[in-house]
Amino acid sequence: MMNKKVLLVDDDEMVLSGYKRILRDRFTIFTANGGKAGLEIIEQKGPFAAVVSDFKMPEMNGNQFLSKVKEIAPDTVRMMLTGYADINTAIEAVNQGNIFRLLSKPCTTEKLTASLNDALKQYGLITSERELLEKTLKGTIKILSDIQSSVNPIAFSRTSRIQKFIPKIAKLLNIEDYWELEMSVMLSQIGCVIVPPEILEKKYAGEKLSEEMENLYRSHPKVGKQLLENIPRLEKVATAIYHQFDNYSDPDNPDKLQGESLPLTSRILKVLNDFDTYVTAGYTFEDAFKKLKNNRIAYDPRVVVALDVAIAGIYEGLTLLSVYVKDLTPGVVVAADIVDENGFVLITKGAEITEMLKMKLMNYSNLGKVREPIQILK
């Protein structure tokens, strides 16, 4: 069914009432008095096919508002309607990619209606093309995954095991490109087609491999990248898979991608791969997690904490954040033990921060005795 939802934003209630009266028979009309109200409606009532904004509004002008709309609802077609249009306004709005069309007041009903019809057609093209591409690509990946499960069931079994953690980790880390993460996990072991099953069996059982076997096993991310990098829209997935063995911090290899420059998806794959290796080798979840937690070089600490929370499964709906003590607010939950510079636990994970606990942490922090940033759930 075609989306005909249109949001009209202006700081003049009479203008909004007029728009609604003349357009309500043709479109599903929503109105907002100003940019802030408009953003709230988009969050609550979206998706909208089109948004039409006045330019001159207090607190947030039309271009600023439409710039934010572009961030939170990139598919929505954006138009500006203003009586204060000049060449600079038009150039700025077009150059920033914030608008589909610039209309000047007064604008006839016929012209506004025609422009909105064009906007709805544009929205239909955007969403239908993306849907077609995603369905086609997901279908292709499903075939690749099915082939992998037949050709190399040992490698595919890892994919199945680590996939179950992905939805919770994505929510905790507030990952927007979930599709990319999901595809990366599904295809993370595809390069194992070159690895003999007996090597995988030994690796997953925690047995020590010969140098030759280890090198062969560790070559599979490179093979996976080569298999995927020429498939349209899988370039980032291929890169993430290629870096899935890279350490978060590697002082011996300063030329490698490290820290925040390492793709987040790669950091997640690193944690999940090693966690699964420990578990399949016979470690309990708790002991496997301890081995990850104690290795501050190999893993992004936020991802390790997210896995811990995902395993616990008791903090649904919360987001994992890294903050400094000074920015703590009462009511948040501690996601990982807060420790001093010697590793002594000051506050255990799962505790709720109160005013008193914050005062305690502030005192330690002022003396430089808290490892920061700390991990919280909000």
Roughly how many Å is the radius of gyration?
26 Å
Distance between the termini: 37 Å
For the sheet with most strands, the description reads: 5 strands, parallel
Mean pLDDT equals 85
Number of strands: 10
The helix-and-strand class reads: alpha/beta
Q: How are the elements arranged and paired?
A:
Blueprint (H helix, E strand, L loop, with lengths): L4 E6 L2 H11 L4 E6 L1 H11 L4 E4 L8 H11 L4 E6 L4 H9 L5 E4 L4 H43 L1 H11 L2 H7 L5 H9 L10 H8 L6 H7 L2 H9 L6 H8 L21 H17 L4 H9 L7 H12 L7 E4 L9 E2 L3 E2 L5 E3 L7 H12 L7 E4 L1
Parallel strand pairs: 1-2, 1-3, 3-4, 4-5
Antiparallel strand pairs: 6-10, 7-10, 8-9
Can you give a write-up of this model?
- The chain has 16 helices and ten strands.
- The protein has a five-stranded parallel beta sheet, sandwiched between helices.
- The longest helix has 43 residues.
- The model has no long low-confidence stretch (mean pLDDT 85).
Task: Provide a concise account of the structure shown.
The protein is an alpha/beta fold and 378 residues long. It has 16 helices and ten strands.
Give the tags.
alpha/beta, Rossmann fold, Hypothetical protein af1432, Molybdopterin biosynthesis moea protein, domain 2, three-stranded antiparallel sheet, 10 strands
